[in-house]
Design brief:
This protein is an alpha/beta fold. Helices cover about 30% and strands about 15% of the residues. It is built from five helices and five strands, in the order E-E-H-E-H-H-E-H-E-H. The protein has helices at about 15-20, 35-40, 55, 75-85, 100; strands at about 5, 10, 30, 65-70, 90-95. Strands 1-2-5-4-3 form a five-stranded mixed beta sheet. Helix 4 links the parallel strand 4 and strand 5. The longest helix is centred in the middle third of the chain and has 12 residues, at about 75-85. The N and C termini lie far apart (about 30 Å). It comes from Halalkalibacter kiskunsagensis. Pfam families: Rhodanese.
Length: about 120
C-alpha cells in the first residue's frame, strides 16, 4: 500500500509489481544505483541512471512525467526524488525498501544502462 514520506509517495513491492506489469508508460521506473550493483542484479526492463549522474541529465527529463526511483534500500532513491522535487519535478516517487525488499524476478548484466535520456521514451 502506497504511503507518503517527506512529501514523496512511497511505492511498496506489490505496487511496483503491478506497475511493471501495467502496459502504460507511467511512471517511468529508473534504477539509481551504481553500475556494479545494477549489473549484479536488477529488475528486468528497468533502466539505470546512477544517482551521481542525475544532476547532469535532469534538464533532459520531462517535468510533466512521473518518475519512480529504485535503489538498494530506498534511501538513495528517496534522495533523488527529494532532489528532483526541489528542482520543480512534482511527480516523483520512491520504491520503499529498494532491492533489499524486492522478491520478484531479477536479471544480471548491463541490460539497460542509459547513455541518452531519450532512450526512456521507448
Amino acid at each position: 500500500m502506497a504511503f507518503e514520506q517527506d512529501g514523496i509517495k512511497q511505492i511498496e513491492v506489490s505496487d511496483l509489481k503491478e506497475l511493471i506489469n501495467n502496459t502504460t508508460k507511467e511512471p517511468i521506473i529508473i534504477d539509481v544505483r551504481e553500475v556494479e550493483e545494477y549489473e549484479e542484479a536488477h529488475i528486468p526492463g528497468i533502466p539505470l541512471i546512477p544517482m551521481h549522474t542525475i544532476p547532469n541529465v535532469m534538464d533532459q527529463l520531462d517535468k510533466e512525467q512521473t518518475y519512480l526511483f529504485v535503489c538498494r534500500s530506498g534511501n538513495r532513491s528517496q534522495n533523488v526524488a527529494l532532489y528532483l522535487q526541489n528542482q520543480g519535478f512534482e511527480n516523483v516517487q520512491n520504491y520503499f525498501g529498494g532491492m533489499l525488499a524486492w522478491d520478484g524476478e531479477v536479471k544480471s548484466g548491463p541490460e539497460w544502462i542509459v547513455s541518452d535520456v531519450k532512450e526512456l521514451k521507448k
